[in-house]
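I'll show a record.
***
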Amino acid sequence: MACAGVATLSIGAGVAGAVPTPDSAEAAPARGASPSSSLDPATLASALDGVHRAGMPGIYAEVRGAGRVWRGASGIADLSTGRPVRPDMRQRVGSITKTFTAAAIMQQVEKGRIELDAPIGRYLPHLVPGERGQKITIRMLLNHTSGIPEYLPSAFPSLAAWPSLPDMSPASLDDNRFRQFDPTELVRMGLSAPAGEPGSTPGVYSNTNYLILGLLLEKVTGTTAEEYITTNVIERAGLRHTEFPTRPRIKGPHSRMYEAFFGLIDPPRDYSVYNMSWVTVGAGLVSTMEDLNRFYAQLLAGEIVSRSSLAEMTRTVPVISQEGELIEYGLGLRRVTTDCGTFWGHDGSVWGALTVSWTRDDGGRQLSVAMNLVRWNRPDASGVPQAHPIDEALATFQQQAMCGDASRQAG
């Protein structure tokens, strides 16, 4: 589904991958770097290799901390050719896109064109009409407390029985590979499903919220949401390899993207070529790990939105993720608490691609990591996805990347 991450790591879908020699990892001083650093290149490279050895075909990452930058890659980008992954590859980053969209909305709040606690019916009365449109606020859309259900079961009907794996098939993934969706059509799919109570907590994660926000951006800016986000968020942050793709194929160097869907697709199938109109500004971006770290560093430093907007974005509520986990969610930002501090960011998966990006609240540590296999855990006889060696290996790498020396001291 379009949201994934730390909680998803225990319910991905596995593959028994070949283990070629991994790419080398690199560590380089950042501008103004201190000679001393808590980044241990050998330890990070070993932990990254461990994820590959556990069954992940390819994984690549960028870690920043103590004025230094480490980039590494391990494994292969193409199972048929053995082509290696590289740290600079482009990736479909899924719901990390939501942070970009939320930042764009907050810019419009700053300009006075949108009121955060105004009802969506004020702006889009024909899309969300009547009492519902008057109860649901822009804030509720941003933090998933609107009560509006997910549209994906309608757009991908063969997956509508989720989470009952025995009653599902991957047929819709292939049926929709080149299908051009209209965002209004997708929103109406979500609005037609049984709704929750607006404003109640815990909220329920729903991509429908962010497609509505995209249509709101279009209404108040007079341009498409993708164009506005590109000019005012992506280009403002100086991101050189981040874009909303306009065609199914990704431009520039990238990996194949293998979807296993909990063993329903065996062997895992490549979905790197895909029409992303099914998620648009909810989960459609392509980016690099370097660009993601740059973006979150600037956002959390108050360089993309104002400090007051950032304060609103970091006010969290409990939200139930698509995987059934309770997460802390703000306005397009997730909060994760570790033994070495509080991190902000997002995670995301689309068919075949999983990405996680976290930045510590003081900006002193960052991790962005991409993987080319999703939903790797196979189910047991009752249909419940089981633990896989990738889960533990990935948790080990993330702990080392986010906490460095602190993780060793804690152990």
